[in-house]
Amino acid sequence: MKALVYLGPMNVKIVDFEIPSCGSDELLVRVIYSAICATDVKTITKGHALIKPPAVLGHEVVGEVVKVGENVTGFSEGDKVVVGPYAPCGYCFYCRRGLYTCCENLFSEAVYPGGFSEFIRVPPRIVKSCTLKVSRARLEEAALTEPLACCIKGLRASGFSPGDNVAIFGAGPIGLTHLMLVRRLGARKVMVVDIDANRLEMAKKLGANVVLNPREEDVEDRIKNETDGRGADIVLTDTPAFEAVKSSINSARKGATVCLFAGFSPSAHEYAVDLNAIHYREINLVGSFGYTPQDFYLANQMLENGIIQLSPIITHIIGLEEVLEAIKLIQRHEALKVVVKMGEGK
Fold first, then answer.
1. Who contacts 185 (Cβ-Cβ below 8 Å, separation ≥6)?
2. pLDDT attached to residue 264
3. Which of 97, 238, 285, 302 has the fewest C-beta atoms lying within 10 Å of its C-beta?
């Protein structure tokens, strides 16, 4: 089988691998689509402290079951499935407290060799809690189940309720997914902030009530004006730009929640925020990382039942040999979500 191997910054190569074996508690899945994530972009362009080359990247995967381990139930050869990249152990200190994304063993099992390959072996934990059938959703959209699940978890962390005024900083794939989610779930007013005019135009098309460019106007004042002088009830920070973090806090009303969804650079600890603003205005500042099996299930069901459609943010479907060029398109903001077609599927 063929797989795309990351060898170092801007260095990838298609390599022949043996098709993985399938253990008695595992599944063997032929990958149909694998989407490019921001983590893939960061790793391929700059490297990643936790991902050492050579490595097969890719973790947003949909495919077809080709072999079922003898102890596995609920799956048959030919099933279309979406596969999560990790699953909590369920028994560690954090899992017993319901903090599944803080699981001490979260990454101790992983698909092999990675999503940018023609076949993957799915380990037991992921088979049990983060592999779900796909029967009605478009397969290229189903490949985005994992980022949708992460966005659902971010909304849960924010305490979002129908009727809330929501400000979203960042109109990339994650920000636009959050936009579609909160519109579908009953947000009162959604304000999207970005410096890219094309992305703001897309946000408008997807239902943003207000789009704001901080290079053209005072975003914090505008958000307060749009919310009777109070500020947003919920702020989702979906960009690693630190100026956006400061502006997120300043745009939130008293008692609001600011959810830091984006990951930040290693130098982020050097940045300063106004702690008194958080203290006296009683701002809830929360982080959100990853997804839980419950979020993964909800994302699957939303896509299966047509509650949300992610096709508007899929701008390119490419072949495995085009990944490096697609990374460059993403860097130049000429693409939103890019999906790699690995095999045939409908």
1. 155, 160, 162
2. 84
3. 97
